[in-house]
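Q: Given only this backbone (181 positions), what sequence would you predict?
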């Protein structure tokens, strides 16, 4: 026979009670692994504790995105100033016109010194491909990992790009330079 525990809230599930009036607990309860698919006797109270409340929204996994970081980098570093206004608006429009792309990479013109934008690429994280979205005609349409010379991450606090010491394209990369072809 199952009764409600007197000191518990009435919304919590029923705890099995023995004929002597004591709660039934299986031996070594702490050592057992709980199975949410096949609960055993005495697990009802513990399993209810880990269920999500019905009024909370379902959590969904979102892919990492650097969309806002790239927008800031283009506006504040790569194409900053009144003289680059038209080019900046074109690049930002290209970002807005591709809502399905979640990760962008900036290709810089030179290998050292200023970080001027040569082209903007979409980065497919699953395949590792870089495809050109916007930029000069001299920029390649696709970039492969073996063509990349150096990797950079945008530091929004200092408003500058910092070189990363990595050998492959990772999700923290916001800008790259390529080897001369």
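A: Predicted residues:
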């Amino acid at each position: 026979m199952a009764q409600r525990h007197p000191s518990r809230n009435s919304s919590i599930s029923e705890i099995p009670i023995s004929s002597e009036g004591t709660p039934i607990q299986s031996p070594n309860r702490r050592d057992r692994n709980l199975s949410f698919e096949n609960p055993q006797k005495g697990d009802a109270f513990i399993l209810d504790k880990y269920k999500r409340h019905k009024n909370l929204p379902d959590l969904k996994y979102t892919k990492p995105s650097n969309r806002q970081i790239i927008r800031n980098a283009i506006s504040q570093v790569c194409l900053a100033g009144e003289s680059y206004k038209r080019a900046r608006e074109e690049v930002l429009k290209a970002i807005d016109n591709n809502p399905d792309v979640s990760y962008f990479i900036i290709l810089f013109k030179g290998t050292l010194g200023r970080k001027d934008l040569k082209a903007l690429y979409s980065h497919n994280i699953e395949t590792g491909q870089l495809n050109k979205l916007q930029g000069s005609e001299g920029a390649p349409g696709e970039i492969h990992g073996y063509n990349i010379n150096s990797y950079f991450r945008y530091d929004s606090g200092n408003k500058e790009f910092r070189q990363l010491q990595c050998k492959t394209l990772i999700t923290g990369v916001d800008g790259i330079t390529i080897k001369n072809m």
